[in-house]
Amino acid sequence: MATKTDVDDGIGGYLDGSIAAIDPRRAVLGSVGIAGFLALWWAASLVQPSYVLPSPAAVGETFYAEAASGEMATAIGHSVRHWVPGAAIGTTLGVAAGVGLAWSSVADDVSAPIVRTLRPVPPLALIGFAIAWFGINHAGAAFIIAVGAFWINFYAAYGGVEGVSEDLLDVARSLGVEGDLELLRSVVVPAASPEILTGVRTGIGRCWMLVVASEIFGVPGIGRRILRASNNLQVDVVIAYILVLSLMFLLVDVMFRAAQRRALAWR
Amino acid sequence: MAMNDERGDGGSSPKDANDANGNAEGEDRTVGGAASAARVRVAEVAKHYEGTEGPIRALEGVSFDVSDGEFVCLVGPSGCGKTTLFRIIAGLESATAGEVFLNDERVEGPTPDMGVVFQEYHLFPWRTVRGNVGFGLEKGGIDGEGGIDGEERRQRVDRLVELVGLEGFGDSYPKELSGGMKQRVAIARALAVDPDLLLMDEPFGAVDAQTREMLQSELLDIWRETGKTVLFVTHDVEEAVKLADRIVVMAKEPGRVREVIDVDLPRPRARSDAAFGRYYERVLGLIRGERGTPDV
To answer: Are residues A34 and A65 in the same domain?
Structure first.
């Protein structure tokens, strides 16, 4: 029984919690939506050649074949190997920079021109640097993903910290909290945590989108598989791997949202 | 001096007011530990702002003293600079001129020697009741002892939660509490670091009348039990007469001290009492700017 409890307190518990939270009415309506979409897709596929739009059943078969052959697991494994470090590093640096610059007006003023110059650069435009600095490998792809995660987290954390109530800081100071680091740790970061966590969640989703872009220059993974299949007009494979991306996103997002809800239970 | 005739004693200097609280001396201080109260001296404090229509003199030449263990209320009409003065005394804002001393030491900034309680509670919403109360004990916030932890902290937090009557709510988050309960948490949090002075800005202004009365008498109990010096800002004259040993009445434009009144009434004080009414009318008259109000 002890083991059971342990599992419930872990990720299993999060998932149970979020599944229990699903509203039956919404679940039914959602199922109707999916069924309608599949029916439309199927109808459209009847009047199109399969290299334009394969039927849902054909995609299902391809999905199964790719899963059974181990191709899919290999692709996921590769993508995860740059998604995880990219998302982790980009998120960490983005949150740190956002908190730091929102807190320190000097650092903010110094960095403002640089931030505004770099902000509009799309991660894809940095592929040259990724190759030159890291090479055609997981590190290069992680770099592209990290850049995407960085900005989302930067702005979320920046906004969150700007919104921290001056009154809470007064209270903390009057209770003996001294120095920037102590104030950041004990008041600023917890007070800004709802915005920071929303940024992290958005960033994690964005990183899955960037997986495709980050593999455009030859790093293996889900994105590479999609790009190759597109070139060969294997639309069923393309759709199967788009589904894989969606499922990966959904899995991570559901887990994160459950953790987020738990962390922000005080709201 | 009708007041003194009634009470049958001599003048009521701060010293006497202090003696009147002597009952706190002998009691077991469950929270404060060693007796720690404070003298406050506000000396010629002024605060000027640049307004759109020239300089604004929010405070001008404000001086008064609070002695050890005394309960002093600061009342005045809105716009008389009460809250500005509160923030200057707390070290949260600087004065244009003049100084504030706590136990003869100049106040240069916020210090755990003063427990500050605001009208809007300002609890840390991500912390439970116990987490809020224990906040100041987690770091070098208390008397330079470098903070306390573990069992000692838990016990202290428990005692404070009990002192403010929140047993059973220790693990609740602020969002789950009523306004009165939130203010109790804020008071316990301020007391946790064992401040010499409890500095309160309209602490009961945001709760309903019934809760306010309850909190007022609880605050008096806490004051008696801990022997802290209390400086309490309010715009509510009845509240001031009910609580204070002395009332500092302020006037506005510029914000200044109009008069300091000793309240020589035994506690608990009832609004229906004739002497209470006379103090009430007198303070109210001063606030309304009536001159030549009769002595109580």
So the answer is: no
- Total domains in chain A come to 2
Q: What is the CATH number of the domain that holds A145?
A: 1.10.3720.10
Instruction: Please state the domain extents for chain B.
Output: 37-110+230-290
In the block, tokens 């506005």 appear at: B252
On whether the B37-110+230-290 domain is CATH 3.40.50.300, my answer is yes
Chain A residue numbers touching B117 (CB-CB < 8 A): none
Chain position carrying tokens 């639309």: A235
The interface pTM score, or ipTM, of the predicted complex is: 0.80
Q: Which of B181, B117, B201, B202 is nearest to A171 (CA)?
A: B117
The count of C-alpha atoms lying within 13 angstroms of the C-alpha of B98, restricted to the half-sphere facing its C-beta, is: 23
Q: Is there a contact between A65 and A241 (Cβ–Cβ < 8 Å)?
A: no
Give me the domain span that covers residue A152: 54-263
Of B136, B173, B175, the CB nearest to A176: B136
Nearest CA in chain A to B117: A171
Same domain for A36 and A69, yes or no, is no
Residues A195 and A214 in one domain: yes
- Give the model confidence (pLDDT) of B226-252 as tens digits: 889 999 999 999 999 999 999 999 988
- 94-153 in chain B: CB under 8 A from chain A: 109-112, 114-116, 118, 120, 122, 124-128, 135-136, 138-142
- The runs of H, that is alpha helices, within B135-273 are 150-163, 179-192, 209-226, 237-243
Give the model confidence (pLDDT) of A31-72 as tens digits.
999 999 999 999 999 998 888 899 999 999 999 999 999 999
